[in-house]
Amino acid sequence: MGKNYDAAVLSGGICGFGMGATYNALANMDSITERFGPSPKAYFILPMVGAFAIDITNSIFITIFLNIAQSIS
Fold first, then answer.
1. pTM
2. Contact assessment for residue 9 and residue 39, using Cβ atoms and an 8 Å cutoff
3. Sequence-ordered list of residues with C-beta below 8 angstroms from that of 8, at least 6 positions apart, any chain
4. CA distance 22 to 30
5. Which helix (H) or strand (E) holds 63?
6. Angle at the Cα of 67 (from 64 to 69), degrees rounded to 5?
7. Distance CA 44, CA 58 (A)
8. Tens of pLDDT along 28-61?
9. CB neighbours of 57 closer than 8 A, spacing ≥ 6?
């Protein structure tokens, strides 16, 4: 992600994804930016990736695995 402030804020967001979902990532980023200042680039990138790529991909995989489970039983 780089070696600048935006990368640090994004890293906090990635830790938030590890704790749950997109809203946890945004809460982590809020905590960082309240203390050290804004990061518009991080707030643009993370919700796009989190909400779009991860949540939609997750729903596709769940549907695929449910269909596989139904065809087995």
1. 0.71
2. yes
3. 32
4. 12
5. helix 55-72
6. 110
7. 21
8. 999 999 999 999 999 999 988 877 787 788 889 9
9. none
